[in-house]
Amino acid sequence: MIEDTSGPGTVRPGGRTARVREAVLRAAGDALVERGFGGVDLAEVARRAGVGKTTVYRRWGTVPGLVADMLAEMAESSQPRADTGSFAADLAALAALIRETLTDERQGPLFKAVIATATGDAGTAAALHRFYRTRIEEWSPCVDRAVDRGEVPEGTDAAEVIRFLSAPLYYRLLASGDPLDAGTAQRAAAATAAAAREGVFVTAR
């Protein structure tokens, strides 16, 4: 059994605390995918993770707390933004990354479960919103650099560009059930780049 005797928020990268967090969040993710939010039990998560029950209750306290930390960990471990020197290529890299994540055999179902939970739990919804703000902030400089290079107009709203690119990919994952293939990602990136060049996302001049 992995036991953690440190207090909440004390993280030693590569140490026991990091291993405990990794094991607990993986176990929580597995339970969420298998049973949904209502079926996640902290004691069961502790058993699956091989850690003491008191550790899970002390560090996370509630299931929404676990989900919030899971999303924080996903944001921390996501790939950094591309810097290809081309606006269109940067967007293509982002679209490919989103598609790869959403079609991953673990990450795809996990995102579905978290999003479904967020529709009925305010804490999970807030954590999900933080996750996407973090990812938008990570990739927005791609748009800012494109403005500096003269590829898109001044005043282009970088966050809105990232949202526009992401939307059709999430639509296929969550609503239509249509294939989420490489061609879909490429078209989303190309359409977003074309719209940005035309000034569709300009909010100030």
TrEMBL record:
DNA-binding region: 41-60
Residues in HTH tetR-type domain copies: 18-78
Alphabetical list of InterPro entries matching this protein: Homeodomain-like_sf (IPR009057), HTH-type_TetR-like_transc_reg (IPR050109), HTH_TetR (IPR001647), Tet_transcr_reg_TetR-rel_C_sf (IPR036271), TetR_C (IPR011075)
Origin: domain of life: Bacteria
Source species: Glycomyces paridis
Protein name stated in the entry: TetR/AcrR family transcriptional regulator
PANTHER family per the UniProt record, alphabetical: HTH-TYPE TRANSCRIPTIONAL REGULATOR RUTR, TETR-FAMILY TRANSCRIPTIONAL REGULATOR
Alphabetized Pfam families for the sequence: TetR_C_11 (PF16859), TetR_N (PF00440)
PROSITE patterns the record matches: HTH_TETR_2
Keyword Transcription: yes
Transmembrane segments: none
Protein keywords: DNA-binding, Transcription, Transcription regulation
GO MF annotation, one: transcription cis-regulatory region binding
